[in-house]
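seq:
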Amino acid sequence: MIKNIKKLIQKLGDKDPSVRRRVAEDLSEGDERAVYPLIKALSDENAGVQDASMRSLIAIGTRDSYSGEVVGYMVLPLLREDSYLRNTALIILTALNGVAVPLLYPLLKDKDDDIRKFAIDLMGDIKKGVEPSMIMPLLKDPNANVRAAAAKSLGLLGYRDSIPELIKALKDEEWVCFSALDALGELKAVEAVEDIGSLLGSSSEAVCFAAIETLGKIGSEKAVDALIAYLPKASVDEGSAVIKSLIQIGITPEMADLSGHLIKMLKDGDWEEKEIALKGIVSLNCREAVPVLVDIAGSLDPSLPESEERIVLLRDAISSMDSEDELLNLLESPGMKYRGKSFAIEILGTIRSKKAVSKLVDYLDDMRRDLRRASAEALGEIGEMRSTGHLLEVSLKDVDAHVRRSAIEALGNIQAKDAFKALMDLLEVEKYYDVIEKIVESLIKIDADAFLSDMPKYRDNVREIIAKTVSDVDILLRLADDPNKKVKIAAIYGLGRIGTDKAVSRLIWFLGDSDPDIRKAAVVGLGEARYCSAELFNALQDDDPWVRFYTIKAIAFSCDKGKAISMIGTMLHDEFIPVVMSAIDAISEIGGREAYEALVVHEEHPNPDVRDKIKEALSSL
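struct:
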């Protein structure tokens, strides 16, 4: 509690708004004596003082039940003030939770319509400790806004005993009807389905629309017949709402007549409506929609951020349906754009369509690069040996390196032993690094023992790729002694990747290497292996600053929060500024109170860039 609270309260009248704001904040630690001055400060001309006062009243009011009652009782009169004070009072009373509820019951009989409504709204928001039966009589209040508020709150409070009265409220004024529908939806009131269904013929489009949505929210099969019967009469927007509600209830194969509506919605609707239609199409296994879905996917611009997510959604939908024959037909369709065909080919690969193999083989000779590439990848997923000869020809002769790369990867996925010798020959002459990577990966998949037995004879870049690819510790240990530095470093990283005891032991040994690049690779490997140890901590004292730099990252990656901050914190005195910056980043990323305490003591660091970095980090913790 605050000492000399009276002197502090007096400062709420200071001319300087920053002083008044600070006082309002400090009074959050005060007792009930601070409540009235803080309420007066809600009318301060300065917005910062107003906000601080509100927060302090909430802090006092939520400390214990007595303080909550005091704050609630003194804030209630603000409900009769201007809109700002009224809204502030609503925020405070809601934050007081159930403590304020007993104070609200008398307001349900207030002469002021707005006060009765505010009290009901508050009860619906607070929920805790509210007795819903006290609100029930207000469904018959003379004021329509009060009746609507009562209906809404009864739904929010989950009071099922109110359902019969809420059904009666469906015949009330339009605004009250909306709130009653909303409440019946919240209550999943199956017994109200028939009465809600009768609103589908309402002269008010808004009421009709709300009734459709409520039937979906209730989710009862009893609503299906009424919704389907209304669909032919529905406007475009209503039709979308009907479909959405039917999907919420659950579309069954017996609803096949909806297919036409779903496809139309898919073609003409916005993306949100397309997603709704898509759910129904999948539920009905509506194969007629496959060409439309593929066409939509083909029309999406891959460069737009949202396209990737939408393409995945379409791909998953088509893959989950019995769509094989439709997709095969699309490959022969002259009207389908190449991007759509590429999408169809991709899905045929995903579903491993044996029927598609001969068509995909034909597409390996297509003039369009993307179709050749997609076909090669799909054939790799399908895994049919009869396609290996064609894929091998593409691997050797296609003019496009990306297509060759995809065909080589496919041969590896198929594990085509017939391709081993040809790929070995290709390895000797291929120039593109990413293609060489795929050749190595595929040769390992086809026959690892045969390929790795001649490892010392391969070019440096091939050995480097092997080191990046294999997970065999003995192979990596051999490559870690390779005379080529790039190969050696790749192998050291590989040892960290597999992280076995044998691998870690060798990584520790490399910490003593005379070459700082090797030591740096070793600490990165230990970090990858999650090896938090004294050897790693010792590397913080390495003569090479970049070894220290990467050791910080490895410790942050490997060690528990407390140990990591403790060890990394020692590097804030390092003479090499990038090391200090790395330490600040690592500590900040770990986060928490310990991180804050480790950084705050260095706020006055002699280097201005470091000071700015620490200030920025502290502000985010």
